[in-house]
Amino acid sequence: MQDDNYGRLKGKVAVVTGAGTGIGRAIAMLFAKEGAKVVCASLHASSCQRTADDIQEKGGTAIAVPTQVADFKDIQNMVRKTIEAFGKIDILVNNAGIVNCFCKVGDVTEEQFDEMFNVNVKGQFLAAKACIPYMVENGGGIIISTSSASAMVAQYSTGVYNATKAAVLFLTKNIAVDYAKDNIRANCLCPALVDDTVINKDVFAKAEADPESWKETLSKYPMGRIAAPEEIARGALFLATDDSSFVTGTTLTIDGGFTCL
Fold it and tell me: Which of these, 198, 196, 143, lies nearest to 168 by C-alpha position?
């Protein structure tokens, strides 16, 4: 998995939630390429196992742990499996997230509201809560949370999702403040639309059915395209290494200029 140009995470143990597809998978693959031992966590056993298998086939080290991030027992199991396999936790990538509806705020059901907040916010809180004690014991660590450019702007028919991502942003800032003296750095990734992500499947389905709507979507991006998952992963790598040693409590917006307009 490694060559002479890689190894910036050699000796590190990284837990990546939502590692089965899209951004999480890209981060898991890149971190393994850089020498990390990776715990691939995902709601679906088949997808996180596929990521772990692909890492191993390329010479890296990884295990798969199916995890429902909104369930603290599952999170505790994920952490237990990590410690059993690798003995420590250096990096947590809080990436798992969902969108379960595209509709106006008044049309969101209570069940949809609860599910989005449970997965997108509570899930990140629970994972951080479970991993932080091991990081403190180990003398420090890195927490990278996937928020969104949607945390910074209002958008039609995604109000509750946007609210969850804004909550993630400020939860992460407060983790950074609370644990700075424990040598734990916490930062957010804020991507806009990303190709090959399950969370955006409805957007891509609409684009395929209506090419003109896709042109309108791309017009909101000064760079004229959306991101590949690997481009977001490279941002995560920056936040996971000493290249960002004085960066904590901030947001790394990777959006092709979307939030500039």
Answer: 143
Q: Over the range 206-222, which residues count as b (16 or more CB within 10 Å of their CB) and which as e? A: ebeeeeeebeeeeebbe
Sign of CA dihedral 240, 242, 244, 250: positive
DSSP state of 119: I
Q: Which of 134, 156, 161, 221 is catalytic?
A: 161
Between residues 205 and 133, the one the model is more confident about: 133
Q: Report CA torsion sign: 112, 117, 119, 120.
A: positive
Place of tokens 């979507």: 217
- Assess contact for 188 and 147: CB atoms under 8 A: yes
Whether residue 17 has pLDDT greater than 80: yes
For the entire predicted model, the pTM comes to 0.95
Structural domains in the chain, sorted by start? 13-252 (3.40.50.720)
Phi, psi (deg, nearest 5) at residue 9: -115, 20
Active site residue 179: no
